């Protein structure tokens, strides 16, 4: 009991401050005809933040993350101000017959309050959005044009979805017999993934409804298929 009271007292005298560096958008489509693109960030906190940016791979289908660099990788952003992170090609080759996808990470680290009478826990909040490189040959291609062409099949308690297109298909929703598949899924170009559907019967018909996310971060048209 005494230990519990000590913990309560400790947390009651700590104020929690969360960074509020907001990224302008949910994804970045990097035009393959360009050498650079820009992402806006805004500090909605009431203190200065140190903003850190870097790229990481999405999965084993991602090319080397050093195909791009972010600049500046580290900078100060005062309260209420807007800043920009540039993403540049490094010259390392990327596939030109399909998209490549990476994570763009933006971390806001709030400045410490030096007031001696305050106990402050500071949190560095990492925002992560998708950076999708679209080659010049695919400049006019959009995910909505390929969503309906996804091929679905059933395998026990799993769904298989095959993407024969050169674009990443990022799902905004997948429903099986009216029940939402809980996780956010994507399928890489010219790839197949398996999606576990634990709540569905391993036999019988399945009605699958899906939609993909467009270049503006919005949900595209819904499509439906019935599979055995």
TrEMBL record:
Residues 161-217 form the Pili assembly chaperone C-terminal domain. It holds the Pfam family PapD_N. The keyword Chaperone applies. Residues 20-138 form the Pili assembly chaperone N-terminal domain. It comes from the Bacteria. It is found in: Periplasm. PROSITE patterns: PILI_CHAPERONE. One of its GO terms (biological process) is cell wall organization. Gene3D superfamilies: Immunoglobulins. GO terms for cellular component: outer membrane-bounded periplasmic space. Residues 1-19 form the signal peptide. Its main location: periplasm. Keywords: Chaperone, Fimbrium biogenesis, Immunoglobulin domain, Periplasm, Signal. The keyword Chaperone applies. Belongs to the periplasmic pilus chaperone family. This is Chaperone protein FimC. It comes from Klebsiella huaxiensis. The lineage of its organism: Bacteria, Pseudomonadati, Pseudomonadota, Gammaproteobacteria, Enterobacterales.
């Amino acid at each position: 009991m005494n230990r519990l009271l000590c913990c309560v007292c400790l947390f009651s005298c700590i104020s929690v401050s969360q960074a509020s560096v907001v990224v302008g958008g949910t994804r970045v489509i990097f035009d393959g005809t360009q050498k650079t693109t820009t992402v806006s960030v805004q500090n909605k906190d009431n203190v200065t933040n140190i903003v850190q940016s870097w790229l990481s791979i999405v999965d084993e289908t991602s090319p080397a993350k050093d195909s791009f660099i972010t600049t500046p990788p580290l900078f100060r952003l005062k309260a209420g101000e807007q800043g920009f992170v540039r993403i540049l090609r490094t010259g390392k080759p990327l596939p030109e017959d399909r998209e490549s996808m990476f994570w763009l990470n933006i971390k806001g680290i709030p400045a410490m309050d030096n007031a001696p009478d305050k106990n402050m826990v500071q949190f560095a909040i990492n925002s992560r959005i998708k950076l999708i490189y679209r080659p010049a040959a695919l400049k006019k291609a959009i995910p909505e044009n390929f969503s309906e062409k996804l091929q679905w099949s059933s395998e026990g308690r799993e769904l298989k979805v095959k993407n024969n297109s050169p674009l990443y298909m990022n799902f905004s929703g997948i429903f099986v017999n009216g029940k939402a598949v809980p996780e956010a899924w994507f399928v890489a170009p010219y790839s197949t993934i398996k999606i576990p559907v634990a709540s569905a019967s391993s036999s019988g018909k399945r009605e699958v409804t899906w939609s993909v996310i467009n270049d503006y971060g919005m949900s595209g048209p819904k499509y439906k298929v019935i599979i055995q």
